[in-house]
Amino acid sequence: MARPCRVAIVGGGIAGLAAAVRLRDLAPAGTEITVYEQSGRLGGKLRTGELAGGPVEFGAESFLMRDPAGGESAAVRLVHRLGLADRIVHSSVGQAALVVDGGLRPIPGGTLVGVPGDLEKVTAVARPAADADPDGGRPLLAPDADVPVGGLVRERFGDEVVDRLVDPMLGGVYAGRADDLSLVTTMPALARAARVEHTLVGAVRAAQAAAPRAAGAPVFGTLAGGLTTLVEAAARESGATVRRDVAVRELHRTATGWRLVVGPTRDPESVEVDGVVLAVPARPAARLLAGPAPEVAATVGGLDYASVALVTMALPEPELPELSGFLVPATEGLLIKASTFFTTKWGHLRRADGLALVRASVGRYGDETSLQLTDDDLVATVHRELSKVLGAPLPAPVAQHVQRWGGALPQYTPGHLGRVAAARAVLRAAHPALALAGAGYDGVGIPVCVRSGETAAEELITALGG
Predict the structure, then answer these.
(1) pLDDT tens-digit series, residues 330-372
(2) Of 121, 178, 374, 375, which cross-links 150 as Cys (Cβ 3.0–4.6 Å)?
(3) Are 386 and 360 in contact (CB under 8 A)?
(4) Signed CA dihedral, 230, 236, 242, 245: sign only
(5) Strands 111-112 and 258-262, how do they pair?
(6) d(CA 445, CA 363)
(7) pTM higher than the cut 0.85
(8) Which H or E run includes 270?
(9) Residues 212-231: pLDDT tens digits?
(10) Which parts of 27-166 fold into alpha helices (H)?
(11) DSSP 334-378
(12) Which residues, in sequence order, are CB contacts of 120 under 8 Å at separation 6+?
């Protein structure tokens, strides 16, 4: 990119903002970057709010510190780039639990997203099949194959390991079911190892050995002051023009670049740019792609999403276990699927007045009728179920908040990454100055979304002659 140009980023979530920062770092001086955000708020699923006079996350609460190869994650690198490294804090309590037969049991160590690398360690939670994991004399996974996580683990370890360990772990991240989710997309390190190893235990151990973690090294981090500080710093450092409450309604190819139709339908505005990053969920992206790239639109528009609600309560001096929280298998029959004890997990959030912030997640893919409850009914149900799991009535909340995230979590079925790669190949060939970024394509989690946005920016710069 020898000359300044104009770039539009559609979507002001962390992927779009990371793309804007990367463009600012690599593009020539004078490049015009505009971020279009349909809502009035930047950050997507990163949203720091306030409850009972203290900060609390109403969306994502933390980021992984390391990438799959063992280096700093893309989120940590972005935090450093934005001058926020001194704000990184780590959890003070790392042990979490599972609800099993109505009570809490510690999540066993040595697992990879619930898949055990030592069957003896999980017997307090789930009983592996009697003939578990025989060596069949060939790799578990063919070179180009992808399978549902649940199917592979059930075949090797039996139903209890899936239902009591793997399913709640994946459900806590994706609000989906292990029997539906892609192994390659949700557990890429395990998929790579399974193409070589003959047993699932061997594949788990190989995947863990490929990305060793120093003893005591923190797994997760967050920012003192909340993750909205990351959003604000990225928007500021990018130097982009940010247009909130502005919808991008149409996308058209021109002789020299792209034309966006933005704003209200009764008073539309045309904007000419050289390149575009689409950093919105798959279905809005598909609508914009329907004209210039119908084949790609059909592919990305087929991705489904789960909706969830996050119920946060401020409880006066409750008796909570020394845990970061717990996960709930679907087989327990509870509305909540996970809970986090914020003021226990994060030492910097502990309060002198004894108030505890507790959050619960509600909503599983394919079973979202619970989300039709009113906010008050959701809070009452969560309070009742938490009391039941903890074995004692919790005090009534002095403050509460319900955050509903409609269509928030992508559901990656087997073959997802191959479909995305094929769609991107079509775009690169036909429309190289148009790139896709975000969780709908590359995976959930702040580091993955950051890297997705950065990669889209780099591809755009290359396409425009950089």
Answers:
(1) 999 999 999 999 999 999 999 999 999 999 999 999 888 889 9
(2) 178
(3) yes
(4) positive
(5) unpaired
(6) 18
(7) yes
(8) strand 269-273
(9) 777 778 999 999 999 999 99
(10) 74-81, 149-157, 159-161
(11) -SEEEEEEHHHH-GGG--TT-EEEEEEEE-BTTB-GGGGS-HHHH
(12) none
